[in-house]
Amino acid sequence: MSFRRRQEGDPAAGEGFTGFLRNLLSGLPWSERAERKEVLSFGAPVQGLLKIHNSNGRTRVTGEDRPDIEVTSFKTARAESQDAAKSMLDEIQLVFQEKPDGLSLEVEVPGKWNRRGSANLWVKLPHEMMVAVTAVNGRVDVQGIRGSVTARSSNGSATVTDVVGDVNVATSNAKVCCQSIEGSLIARSSNGKIEIDQHSGSIDASTSNGLIRAAIGAIGKAGITLATSNGRIVLDLPKEIDADVDLRVDNGVIRNDRELCKKLRETGGRVLGRLGGGGPLIKLRTSNGSISLH
Predict the structure, then answer these.
(1) How far apart are CA 163 and CA 237, in angstroms?
(2) How far apart are CA 30 and CA 113, in angstroms?
(3) Closest to 117 (Cα-Cα) out of 36, 9, 51, 41
């Protein structure tokens, strides 16, 4: 694999009051900071899949009308001195590996108690590629893809927009935002809200603590399942739709603005019925919160 690399030099040390503070704090862990921007470009893998693992930093992936892949890394290092911080920039490496299913990119950041490093990535690639992104500490943003997308973030939000293909997105401690997706969507959050807009296809979304709000233009064959333990659910449907409906709350209220052609059951905590001629199931569940169907 051949690479083309461009690198920008480190910023010069500040003077005046900034220089005074630098001398005052010199020798303390993480007191000095160095930054560097690097750009790599290379051919897209024939398998059409790029896997990215970033242990510390934001990751942005953008599909474009282009034949190659361009990776821009914004490296940041903090250490006890300017020389140590600059040296650590060299230790933050982007490691590429060609694998049977595609190309993998991993950001390696050395772990040292008195130094910290991170790398924000901006990856531009062909629209038609498949993407799988894993971030440990940093948000993930994927847009403009015409293939499957997998996005994972342990401590950061995840946003997926303008995708034609199946999407699987999850966060542990942040929100999930999905917009203008055509395909099957699986969305998970442990402690955060889930927002879905202008979606066409099936949805399976759940969170432990947070709101789920979804607006769809067309429903997929697998239907829609939205579930939260502690939070509201708001679902906006198109004016004309054929679907079966199953709404349930344990501690809360159900607000249904849609006329059910066939109402099978309605109690204080559950509504079963049919929209239009019936079809894919719309299943909404919350333990502590309200359900609104529009």
Answers:
(1) 20
(2) 10
(3) 36
pLDDT in tens, 99-142: 999 999 999 988 765 678 899 999 999 999 999 999 988 999 99
Q: Is the separation of the CB atoms in 142 and 121 below 8 Å?
A: no
Which residues have CB under 8 Å from 169's CB, separation 6+?
149, 150, 151, 152, 158, 160, 176, 178, 185, 186, 187, 188
Closest CA to 177 of 162, 197, 191, 163: 197
- pTM, 2 dp: 0.87
Give the separation between CA 119 and CA 86, rounded to whole angstroms: 14
Query: Tell me: the pLDDT tens digits for 213-250?
Result: 999 999 999 999 999 999 999 999 999 999 999 999 99
Q: Which residues have CB under 8 Å from 201's CB, separation 6+?
A: 181, 182, 183, 184, 185, 218, 219, 220
Torsion sign (Cα): 81, 86, 88, 92: positive
Nearest alpha carbon to residue 8 among 35, 37, 34, 33: 37
Structure tokens at 167: 């999407």
Give me the sign of the Cα torsion angle 121, 124, 125, 128: positive
8 Å CB contact between 32 and 79: yes
